Amino acid sequence: MGRLYDMIVIGGGPGGCTAALYAARAGLSVLLLEGGVPGGQMALTGRIDNYPGFPGGIAGFDLAQRMVQQIEEAGAKVLPCQALSLELSANPKAVTTLEGIFRARTLVYAAGAEPRHLGLAGEDTFTGRGVHYCAQCDGMFYRGKTVVVVGGGNTAVSDALLLHRVAKQVHLVHRRDTLRASQVSFGPLLEAENVSFHWNSTPTRLLGGEALTGVILTDTVTGAETELRCDGMFVSIGRTPATELVGSQLSLDQSGYIIAGESTKTAIAGVFAVGDVRTKSLRQIVTALSDGATAASRAEEYLNRNQ
Length: 307
What we know:
The protein is 24% helix and 27% strand. It contains seven helices and 17 strands. The model has no long low-confidence stretch (mean pLDDT 91).
């Protein structure tokens, strides 16, 4: 059967790294599996300015490398390997990969969530250079500037509310003629002097060279095109949680996130959901860190009860 670990962590983002760090420091044997870039979405962020302890900001990739180095120094094993299937109800739990089958008494699922993209030509090129997916992360870069927010749900409204307090002008673009967000949430936007609404519109082309300078909006009713100049665009059309490996084994909410409270416990004993992949109101690095520490503590309790 090979080595039996106390804990396997799926995902090397901030939540997974923290779970591995706390568990290793508690004397547990830990294996962390990361099939992509260590650090997850954090590692793909050019600069992080809202992480405590770095007043001048820090590159996401650098912060990710520091986290991975720290958990390895604590004794956790990090393996760049993609999980192919999971047996969460098994005892011990099993993870099948191209490198073989790994088993552990507890499992922390921290696979994260991907922001939904518009799918426009050049969108990836402009990401971090005018195109963003997190207003709480990058909104402060646009103080006194003009920004576009794309979306019509609660996330888009929340982003627009945040941005209108720092930006000179906010253009909210929605493909329908009314927002899907609740009235109580978008009411303040209607009263904001620096917020403009573009109904029945969708971005169809991005403009710029080294950085984004504007977008072409297409009217979804008439097909007419309008050029809208801006300094930045925030795509707020939701996220896709990476739950394809656990969807048939764990309870998910209507948006596909794993149902787990602040304890990070899932419906299966010994299995914990951490970070962006679980149901929660705020998805940030610091909240993922909190989840990771909590999961490690709850896993230790579980192991002590089931020796």
